[in-house]
Amino acid sequence: MNQMERDFRPQGLADVQYLDGEFHVVKPGSFVLCAVTGVQIPIDSLRYWSVDLQEAYASPDVALKRFQEAGKTPS
Length: 75
What we know:
alpha+beta, two-stranded antiparallel ribbon, 13% helix
């Protein structure tokens, strides 16, 4: 990008509805927050979330930890 180009992507926290196999951006933004760690997850990198809890996760390990805490995994 040079000085004459602008980045028109929305900045800040996005509001996202998590669905089965996809998500819907309700309010545009550049990232969501991991529900466990608080880490910013760029929308383009969002891969892990819970439909039931409506939460995003930074990694599969973090998601598994949260699912275990919530009793969402088999014993």
